Amino acid sequence: MADYPSLHMIIDGERVDGGSRRTHTVVNPATGEAIGELPLADPADLDRALAVAAEGFRIWRDSTPQQRAAVLQGAARLMLERQEDIARTATLEQGKPLAESRIEVLMNVGLFNFYAGEVQRLYGRTLVRPTGMRSTVTHEPVGPVAAFAPWNFPIGNPGRKLGAPIAAGCSVILKSAEEAPASALAVLQCLLDAGLPKQVAQAVFGVPDEVSRHLLGSPIIRKLSFTGSTVVGKHLARLATENMQRTTMELGGHGPVLVFDDVDLEHVLNTVVAHKYRNAGQVCVSPTRFIVQQSVYERFCAGFAQRAQAITVGDGLEDGTQMGPMANPRRPEAIDKLIGDAVQRGAKLLCGGERPKSLQGSNQGYFYAPSVLSDVPLDAAIMNEEPFGPVAILNAYADEDAMIAEANRLPYGLAAYAWTADAKRQQRLSRGLEAGMVGINTTMIGGADAPFGGVKWSGHGSEDGPEGVLACMVTKAVHEG
User: Fold this and answer.
1) Residue 452, CA distances (Å) to 87, 119, 436, 461, 462 in order
2) Averaged over 186-200, what is the pLDDT?
3) Is 34 within 8 Å of 26 (Cβ atoms)?
4) Which residue of the set 178, 250, 400, 434 is catalytic?
5) Predicted structure pTM score
6) Average pLDDT of 288-307?
7) Tell me, which fold does domain 9-251+458-480 have in CATH?
8) What is the pLDDT confidence band of residue 2, given thresholds at 50, 70 and 90?
9) Rounded-to-integer distance, Cα 250 and Cα 228, Å
10) Which residues does 2 contact at the CB level (< 8 Å), separation at least 6?
């Protein structure tokens, strides 16, 4: 496709193309057509990237805050200038509507600008000691970082993985998802064009298990940053223990949404339905299990299904599209299986559960209709596994205690939401919901200055905010007599 960029890896500032390497075919999920061939790293490529990352750390750990800030601010300006090209690339390879891709670029712009300021605030402290003694606590960059980013936010996830280590003074080897590589390359190119030394950041692609074992098997890597499924995250965490590498793990979720009967139901529905089907539900913090107070349950179900059916599904590059395709052919199959299991166990399918009717005459693309299930039994797989797709689960509960118990029932704890007008209840929910991020009367839980991360099986550590930079640093206490 003429407007899709050529694909390569970036090692030591060099664009490494296919040559005799294995390749991965990148597909436009809206059409199913191949749009590019991505070279995959061989062991020699990974060894080279590791050696360059070691050199890059020696260079960048001694950079001044002003140097780091200049690179981050410069990259932010370039991303803004290149917004339309980067956004179009993301939509071509991942499928989300172009409007969502444009917002994703702006997320990176905001994050890089925040980190540019945060590099001036990496304070330590001086401890109180008797005269003649001096004790200080400082923060130092941890070392080369191996960062693994998924396909669902092909611009924003690489931005997080690159921005924090660079702000902290680390080097980084980025392996983004092979399904959506060009967006990640565009973000890294903005950093390089803004003056980042070529040794500081590399981009490689490959067979995920091969790349992860090779990078984490090296003592050069001092930290692992991973965003993805809980199953893969646990596997990588085990690999990281061999070399005692620090980890930041942003894993799966199963976002509960508590809806009480004292709210403006129309306002809640208008907000949560749009948020549920953002990026076709392929969002780790997507609101998924709607835990609704019994007295408003029937109205909530009817209003939810009505709004879901009105969503326009289509190619993300077309005007008027509100929801694009799923990212690959595995995802519609997985959602179909989960919905089928739930219905077989007694759930009601209020809408969806199939390819959108407007697209049923065509077999192109990985589309799935916005779907709504109600009265879903707890033993259904979808009540216990993250669906990661355009399906909402609606169930009725009698009171606050039962609703909180259901919200906390699963081992996931990434994001939770609640809607209530009762101020005291809001305080109880903020304490009682087991999640790293809680939205009360809002779905807006992310921000450049706010930590992003979960608890329990949803991982540990934070990205974004001051916490994101400090996660790439180690603490040192120095005592002088």
Assistant:
1) 23, 19, 7, 8, 5
2) 98
3) yes
4) 250
5) 0.96
6) 98
7) Aldehyde Dehydrogenase; Chain A, domain 1 (3.40.605)
8) low
9) 7
10) none
250 is catalytic: yes
| Cβ proximity of 280 and 96 under 8 Å | yes
- 422 band by pLDDT with thresholds 50, 70 and 90: very high
* Per-residue pLDDT tens digits for 53-91: 999 999 999 999 999 999 999 999 999 999 999 999 999
Q: Give the whole-angstrom CA distance, residue 382 versus residue 338.
A: 6
Domains of the chain, residue spans: 9-251+458-480, 255-448
Alpha-carbon span 80 to 194, nearest angstrom? 13
The token pair that represents 430 in the structure block: 């903020």
Q: Give yes or no for a contact between 433 and 404, defined as CB atoms under 8 angstroms apart.
A: yes
Sheet holding 134-141, edge to edge: 125-127, 134-141, 473-480
8 A C-beta contact, residue 72 and residue 118: no
Helices (H), 151-288: 156-168, 181-193, 208-216, 230-241, 265-276
Domain 255-448 - what CATH class?
A: alpha beta
Task: Tell me what the pLDDT averaged over the chain comes to.
Answer: 97
Residue 1: the pLDDT is 52
Neighbours of 136 (CB within 10 A): 14
**Any catalytic annotation for residue 284?**
yes
Query: Which among 190, 284, 301, 472 is annotated as catalytic?
Result: 284
